[in-house]
Design goal:
Largest sheet: 7 strands, parallel
Shape: globular
Number of domains: 6
Number of strands: 30
CATH topology of the largest domain: Rossmann fold
Helix content: 25-40%
Strand content: 15-25%
Strand order of the largest sheet: 11-12-10-13-14-9-15
Number of helices: 20
Distance between the termini: 49 Å
Low-confidence stretches: 457-463
CATH class of the largest domain: Alpha Beta
């Protein structure tokens, strides 16, 4: 037999199948060690064949399997073909998604320790016949009662000589056992099922009665009880002997969701996300592969969980942009989920209080079935108050906080309630500017302004008045004078989370605050620690970016302040309105989730914008009607598909030449298919340089025959590949920056 192998090298030149003579026990999905040139390298067996197109006498043989069984299932090998065709990815980059990254190269393995127990022969005998001392008696009695324990524990707590004596006489046997490195130990105590509302009952009934491959959008307002619906659906699936996947958008949400699901399903749940240690991720993945765990909970990458016999896939907060991978390998989680649901003939549920416009449109075309949950469980939605910051400034208030929000914070603290302050920008200030000549410090490697950070970073390192690039992470000392005009005074630009935290400390010195952004959550378990402290009321105010905007359930939060609602509104992006509506609705939904009334203060310089009108009442249907009309008139998704060809390289001239060559080919295609293109242009990317790589792009909107044109574009890109130039094709990218 011939094994068809993909070698584990991410390079276009070797991204193809190599034939090897197989050895006993090798199957598709096995990870193997193979000779490749003058070295030995890992590879993946993707299929077997009776013959090769090459002379068998010249074929090399597989050296050995690297695991005792296949680690990539047949389903995932089918998914590999689907992703290669749709996203035009290297096969090896796809295969790497299916296993823990540090499993490659043997960087992480099972944690095995010596275990001791009483041998079966001596379990039922009278110990007085063979136990000779008190130390042996104590050890024997403990091991009989406990069933055994790891050798290190026994040697620390019992007589070593007694242990050695009983081992030598065969009374105690030693064996190797795997230890699971369990994340988030101690969370998820058993809880009771809640009484469902009528809306929840209707949703559960509709979902559990679904047969075969079915797709649903569960549109429920914040606090309507979508999670309990997920739990009931999952319970039915598990009782039928099937498995399930639940995805959440933010790592910060995962421990909370994991706790709720583990409390219901105990050890049947495994968690997968990039915040785990290598050992934890490997062990959780192994539990799913072995069938010891039946439910995978995690962020985007958990869609590749090695579960068999899937009965349910749930994508919570489906609108969230984090479900799209914006770096190689690029993919969209919803499309992967649809493939797996169809392959397993199972149910796919997308859930959100603010669905993506494209998803909601699919309910109108019949591709998805819509289930509505328009009411909260315990009370009404919070009241949202719009504050015109232009008016505040006109009346002499130059503070970060409007007079109404300031008063509401004071009252919230006096009532011993909790508040959340949302600002979708981390750091202290988004830029600094010379007040004399207007100079703004920029990163040497990236075409972006530097962000001012003060205080200490997440690792406790002092970074007083340091400027940081949020793309390449370079740090610079804050200038004492302008390098252009030598003027000593700089003005700080748009505010960030650090500045909000500082102002709160000045206005409310006794208030206890926590800050949650990328700077404070770099350490392992940082998300969980911050959220746990806030839930246990060890802080009065939680300040954060969009990490705090969705999914969290804090019963004592009665006030939410949106410091600058306009940040996402003025991006030159067709999704700006949608993102702003989603953020405002989601963060507003954190207030008043229990018995106490919730209030939201939304600060804006554009109070009459239609997005705010609909967001204050959480009227998604009205927002959708307005937005879908705009999309149809302008021929943006879902009425077209956007293709972006991103070309980058160190040499700007070579990058421009590559871009021009690709554009001319695409232009010719557009002339031959005039009815299919509604837009085609080339330009610099909005961020012209990142990490010393010049960046240029071609944008096109395709109305018809998308699949055919997509494959044509892929062929053009392949023909124009050049050394030192990187070219990516993106479908409906979340960001064009």
């Amino acid at each position: 037999m011939i094994a068809k192998v993909i070698v584990d090298i991410s390079n276009n030149e070797v991204d193809r199948i190599f034939d090897y003579l197989t050895i006993n026990g090798i199957e598709p999905g096995h990870r193997v060690l193979v000779p490749f040139g003058a070295r030995q390298i890992e590879g993946y067996v993707i299929s077997m064949s009776d013959k090769s197109d090459y002379d068998n006498s010249k074929l090399k043989a597989i050296i050995k399997p690297l695991d005792d069984r296949p680690v990539i299932t047949q389903e995932m090998l089918g998914l590999m073909e689907f992703m290669k065709r749709l996203y035009h990815l290297r096969i090896v980059d796809i295969l790497r998604l299916f296993i823990p990254s540090q499993m490659r190269g043997g960087r992480v393995k099972e944690l095995v320790r010596q275990f001791v127990r009483i041998s079966d022969e001596y379990k039922d005998k009278d110990m007085n016949e063979f136990v000779k001392s008190k130390g042996q008696r104590d050890l024997y009695e403990y091991l009989i009662e406990s069933g055994g324990h790891f050798s290190a524990y026994i040697r620390e707590n019992f007589s070593t000589s007694a242990l050695n004596n009983l081992i030598e006489r065969g009374i105690i046997v030693q064996e190797k056992r795997q230890i699971n490195r369990t994340p988030y130990k101690g969370i998820g105590e058993r809880d009771n099922e809640l009484v469902l509302t009528k809306e929840q009952q209707n949703a559960v009934q509709t979902l559990v009665c679904a047969e075969f491959f079915s797709k649903f959008l569960l549109h429920g307002v914040t606090g309507s009880g979508k999670t309990e619906v997920y739990l009931r659906c999952m319970d039915k699936v598990i009782k039928e002997g099937k498995t399930a996947i639940l995805l959440v958008p933010e790592i910060s949400l995962t421990p909370q969701v994991f706790s709720k699901f583990k409390s219901r399903f105990l050890d049947k749940v495994a968690i997968l996300h990039s915040g785990l240690s290598a050992g934890e991720r490997f062990d959780e993945w192994q539990r799913l592969l072995n069938g010891d765990a039946l439910i995978a909970v995690g962020a985007r990458s958990a869609i590749f969980a090695p579960l068999k016999n899937l009965g349910l896939i749930i994508i919570d907060e489906e609108h969230d942009g984090s479900y799209s991978s914006e770096s190689n390998p690029r993919y969209k989680t919803q499309e992967i989920a649809e493939f797996r649901a169809k392959h397993n003939d199972c149910t796919l549920i997308l859930g959100s209080a603010t669905p993506a416009v494209e998803t909601y449109y699919q309910t109108k075309t019949g591709d998805y079935t819509l289930i509505e949950m328009p009411h909260r469980i315990n009370n009404t939605l919070p009241s949202v108050n719009i504050t015109n910051m232009c008016s505040e400034i006109y009346h002499g208030n130059n503070s970060l906080f409007s007079s109404d929000l300031h008063a509401a914070l004071a009252d919230c603290l006096a009532q011993k309630n909790q508040a959340m302050l949302f600002i979708n920008r981390r750091g202290y200030s988004s830029f600094v500017r010379c007040t004399s000549c207007g100079y703004v410090p920029q990163c040497e490697r990236c075409d972006v302004s530097l962000v001012l950070h003060v205080g200490a970073d997440a690792l406790g390192r002092p970074n007083e008045n340091q400027l940081k690039c949020h793309y390449c992470q370079n740090r610079y000392n804050s200038p004492t004078q302008c390098p252009t005009c030598q003027h000593p005074n700089f003005r700080r630009g748009f505010l960030g989370t650090q500045q909000v935290e500082e102002k709160i400390a000045q206005l409310f010195p006794t208030a206890r605050t926590l800050r949650m952004d990328n700077d404070t959550t770099q350490n392992k378990d940082a998300h969980l620690n911050i959220l746990t402290q806030f839930r246990e009321k060890k802080a009065d105010i939680l300040i954060g970016t969009q990490m705090i905007a969705k999914g969290h359930d804090f019963p004592e939060v009665t006030l939410v302040g949106i410091i600058d609602a306009d940040i996402s509104l003025h991006f030159s992006d067709y999704k700006a309105n949608e993102r702003t509506f989603q953020l405002i609705t989601q963060v507003s939904g954190r207030a008043g989730r229990a018995d106490k009334k919730g209030t939201v203060y939304l600060q804006t310089y554009a109070p009459n914008h239609f997005v705010y009108k609909f967001a204050t009442t959480a009227d998604y249907a009205a927002f959708y009607k307005k937005e879908i009309n705009i999309r149809e008139i302008t021929s943006f998704p879902p009425f077209s598909n956007i293709l972006r060809i991103l070309v980058s390289g160190e040499c700007q001239e070579k990058t421009a030449l590559s871009l021009k060559a690709i554009y001319e080919k695409v232009l010719a295609v557009s002339k031959e298919n005039k009815d299919c293109f509604s837009y085609l242009a080339y330009m610099h990317s909005p961020i012209k340089k990142i990490k010393n790589q010049s960046r240029m792009q071609i944008l096109m909107r395709i109305k018809n025959s998308f699949d055919e044109i997509l494959q044509t574009v892929y062929n053009i890109v392949d023909e124009q590949q050049k050394k030192g130039i990187s070219v990516f094709v993106e479908i409906n990218p979340n960001s064009l920056s």
